[in-house]
Amino acid sequence: DVIHRSFTSGDKVDGKALDRSRDIATAIYFDDDQKLKVYLGTGPPWSKSEIQRRLLEAVELNSLKCLDVLCKKYESEEFSMEEDVVLFYRRYGLSFWPLNERPKETALHVLASKLTSTNAIEVLKRKRKFLTDFSDVPDSHGSTPLLLAIKCNNIEVINELLRAKPDVNKRNRHNESPLHVAALNDHDHIIREILKTYSEPGERTNLLEIMKNIDGKGNSILYSASQSGMTKILNLIMEYDWWKDCLEQQKKSKEQDWKSVVCNVCAAGCVCEGLAKITCLERQKKSKEQNWKLFVCNVCAAGFEGPAKIICLERQKKSNEQDWKSFVCNVCAAGCEGLAKIILQEDSGLPLKWEEEVTPLMRAAEANKQEIVRLIFDIKADRDLFTNCDKDGRNVFHYAVKNPKVLKFFLDQFEKVGVTMFL
């Protein structure tokens, strides 16, 4: 095992060389930089392969003093990135991962995937040559250090790697790229750092082209960002005004991918009005009537204020009065405060327009949605809220009887509006 890991193919192995290799490994294990310096200054010269392998070991073991010594040794050598780069299996840990399935890596790959790499990155920052030279070198599976750092959300390492301006679109064998993975995980802080790094006009133009085909399959960043179910990247796209270009590209994608973007933007609750309106409303209105109704219902059930305002209200208000009233009641019973606020602010008298019917206030009281109950009174407190009865003669107090907090709120409001009535 030591021979396999300590010598590259073609090296002649003898007893003395093997002992020396073990002694060097021991020095790194115990972070004995003085002993390591002795081995660097005596005996046969170190090969470029061995320098790289020992750097990887020092990072694995967090042997910071030895890492500093090895970085100096690396800087003293002439390296060709085309001819001298060698990849290695990690020596420690990962025993659960079969050797033939693991990638061969560099020290920076190990650093990128270690969550306790803050001190090691400080050493490499002081000796930047190795960090700069190897920042874009892929492992045997095609993953760059930046890609691994983004997967681990390893911010310190990401920031230092970006200073070397690596390729943010370099793909591994699974078709993953740094920019793509950041978008999938809604890491807006990483995208912002990339934008800060690649700030020249030509670099920004190139980034936009990458974002328009971020997965290499014709899908834009809208598709990847919406898959996370979160909104930070979507809002960032709106902030930088890329959505028009990305949207035009996305419209050219497969019909199924386009539908996925529409649904995911709404499911994420994206409050970007322009994005929601264009991705959802203009396209979805052209669908079958049944699909449109299902689309409207799903957005409303999720209670997403931005898309709901644009997609639901304008369309729903055109329905017959009974359907509209049912819609309003369901929103209040579900506790969708944002959507309820929009509806009630547009027509403050709406809760009073029920005659011998179950009102939105009754539905909210029965469902114990205290925030909706308060909202209705905040917008317009009126005696008719108490006097309205359903077809069985029941008023809001009957609906609130199982919910003491709502009932107490009604009693307080009842006194304020000065209602005289028999309960």
UniProtKB/TrEMBL annotation:
InterPro entries given in the database record: Ankyrin_rpt, Ankyrin_rpt-contain_sf
Protein name: Nucleoside phosphorylase
PROSITE patterns the UniProt entry points to: ANK_REP_REGION, ANK_REPEAT
Gene3D superfamilies registered for this protein in UniProt: Ankyrin repeat-containing domain
The organism's place on the tree of life at top rank: Eukaryota
Lineage, highest ranks first: Eukaryota, Metazoa, Cnidaria, Anthozoa, Octocorallia
Organism listed in the record: Paramuricea clavata (Red gorgonian)
